[in-house]
Amino acid sequence: MKRAQATLEYILLISFSAAAIIAMLVYMSRGFQGSIRGSAEQIGSGQYAPGNTSIANIETKYEKSVIVSTSDSTTTYGSEDGLIPGHTDTASVNKEESTVMITRDTDERLGAFHNDTWR
Question: CA-to-CA distance for 10 and 16, rounded, in angstroms?
Fold first, then answer.
């Protein structure tokens, strides 16, 4: 009888110990998951904060200009007495084309523009 009672006591001791360990594992895993979540929130909280956000942008534009100028001229010449009159008609057309590249660098930090200039 004493041997059966000792075996029963050992079984109860082991079962209570196992139940206590299982209950502690639940609380420990919840605590561990909570600390992981807290760390993730701490790391990710400033990810898109204005102080940590910067944007660099380069924009290029091409400006094309065409200048057309025309001129007509008439030159009259001859002798002073007017016996040999003459004249020359001259017409000219001048066309100039140019393309200019314009670049703008934009650097945005803290929600305000810095170095926003065309060059």
Answer: 10
